[in-house]
Design goal:
By secondary structure, the chain is mainly alpha-helical. 62% of the residues lie in helices and 0% in strands. It contains five helices and no strands. The protein has helices at residues 2-16, 26-37, 55-63, 72-82, 88-106. Helix 1 packs parallel to helix 5 and helix 3 (55-63) crosses helix 5. The longest helix is centred in the last third of the chain and has 19 residues, at 88-106. The relative contact order is 0.19.
Length: 107
């Protein structure tokens, strides 16, 4: 299940990146192409997050505060300061989402 979450998240982040030399995100650009041509670009067809796992993306964005990779210490401090108790599996997923975020913004 986590694999589907990571794939969804990475594809979504790639769409949110602002295209070089543009002020629009890749998603905004591709949506305009779709509107103009009537053909939906395949990049806009991303699988949804697995049922019951989408909340982890929200937790990730709540915790992620810089372009630097997350550390376990930052996640632990965020959890303690916000009162958001995390299971070891949730922490593992947050770290994998951060890995995916890094890949997406570098590609």
């Amino acid at each position: 299940r986590a694999g589907g979450l990571i794939e969804h998240f990475e594809a979504d982040v790639k769409l949110r990146v602002v295209a070089p030399g543009s002020q629009a995100s890749v998603k905004e650009h591709l949506t305009k192409v779709w509107q103009q041509t009537g053909h939906k670009p395949k990049e806009l067809d991303i699988a949804p997050a697995p049922e019951g796992m989408g909340y982890l993306i929200g937790l990730f964005w709540d915790c992620k505060r810089s372009a630097e990779p997350l550390t376990y210490g930052e996640v632990e401090a965020w959890s303690r300061l916000t009162g958001q108790a995390l299971s070891p599996d949730e922490v593992w997923c947050l770290m994998r989402l951060d890995d995916a975020h890094g890949r997406a913004v570098r590609s």
